[in-house]
Amino acid sequence: MTGTRRGAPTARQIRAGDRRALARAISAVENGAPEADALLKELYPTTGRVRVVGFTGPLGVGKSSLINALVAHLRGRDRRVAVVAVDPSSPFSGGSVLGDRIRFDRPASDEGVFFRSMASRGAAGGVAAATRDAARLLDAAGFEEILVETVGSGQVDIAIRDIASTSVVVLVPHLGDEVQTLKAGLFEIADVFAVNKSDLPGADSARRDLVELAALGGGRDGWRTPVVLTSTLGPTGIPELWDAIVAHEAFLDRSGGRPAAERRRLAKEIVGRVRDRVDAELTDGLESDPALRRLLDRVASRDVDPRTAAEQLLRARRRSR
Questions:
Q1: Helices (DSSP H) in 44-125: which residue ranges?
Q2: Can you tell me whether residue 168 is helix, strand or coil?
Q3: What is the pTM for the complete model shown?
Q4: Cβ 127 vs Cβ 163: under 8 Å
Q5: For the chain, where are the alpha helices, taking DSSP H only?
Q6: Phi-psi category of residue 202: left, alpha or beta, with phi > 0 → left and psi -120 to 50 → alpha
């Protein structure tokens, strides 16, 4: 890669699995550094080879512990695993609020595991806009499984479907009415249910309820969402959970649904990136462009309503093109 500042990570370093270069590249993506764009463009043709599995669910259901158990299971199969944990971010600094970057207890000497915590930076659903690019960097670096954990701030993170080919919704016994409240969102995204902390009373009942709800849903695109009981004490149910994930990935290949799902994700990403660019340009323009400032002044003085102002901006952009 040419034209980057001295010390910037290169595509060759990423493909070689240089962990320090990989960490710097993800930081560059998070910070919107110019060299990140060039790096990602160079690496993009060699990405898209590995599955990305997303984990979401309300706070406190044990997603991190469950992923930690899955990592141990996959390392036992000699799979190279990368984990991206998206944490809530401060509305002031943009930094991670939880900051729990040491919650995964794999040995530092294990070169087959890479863990990165990222701030959501206010992204809808708690999924950072940079998460897709981080996953691509990890793909290019040769990791065979990529696991993404979302914030889960009281709700499921529906945006995980825009990144992951398989979405795991993690719940615990005794959610009760909350499951009913979340039902629409759950069945919009869940490819696999994990009833975690199944050592607690009520796990079998929770599983039955979810199985019944899945049956009522009739399955999405021919896939009937399985429900797996898991516990990180022991642990139990971890191989079964991974088998369910692999089964869904095989279903995507068998049914021909993978290309369509990937095109849908890419379409949303393209539109989202355009939206972000336009949003940034207009926001900056409202502060620096005299015409836009005058329009903002008219809205603030109630001479023009926001909808009319938005229409005027849209017409102006069309004319400028």
A1: 63-76
A2: strand
A3: 0.85
A4: yes
A5: 11-15, 19-31, 34-43, 63-76, 131-140, 177-189, 203-217, 238-255, 257-288, 290-300, 306-320
A6: left
**Residue 40 in 3-state DSSP?**
helix
Alpha-carbon dihedral sign for residues 116, 30, 162, 266: negative
Query: What does the alpha-carbon distance between residue 227 and residue 229 come to, in Å, rounded to a whole number?
Result: 7
Question: What is the residue extent of each domain of the chain?
Answer: 1-46, 47-255, 263-320
Kindly give the parts of the chain with pLDDT less than 70.
Answer: 1-6, 88-108, 120-128, 152-157, 175-186, 217-219, 321
The dihedral of CA 272, 273, 279, 282: what is its sign? negative
Distance of CA 151 to the CA centre of its chain: 9
Q: Note the pLDDT tens digit of each residue in 197-255.
A: 999 998 998 898 888 877 776 667 789 999 999 999 989 999 999 999 999 999 999 99
Amino acid at 46: T
- Return the pLDDT at 104: 60
Q: What six digits make up the tokens of 295? A: 């329009």
Q: Helix, strand or coil for residue 48?
A: coil
| Euclidean distance between CA atoms 70 and 47, whole angstroms | 23
User: Residue 234 has what DSSP assignment?
Assistant: T
Contact (CB, 8 A) for 237 and 231: yes
Arch. (CATH architecture) of 47-255: 3-Layer(aba) Sandwich (3.40)
| Tokens of residue 144, six digits | 């065979």
**What is the CA angle 229-233-237, rounded to 5?**
30
Three-class secondary structure of residue 117 per DSSP: strand
pLDDT at 133: 93
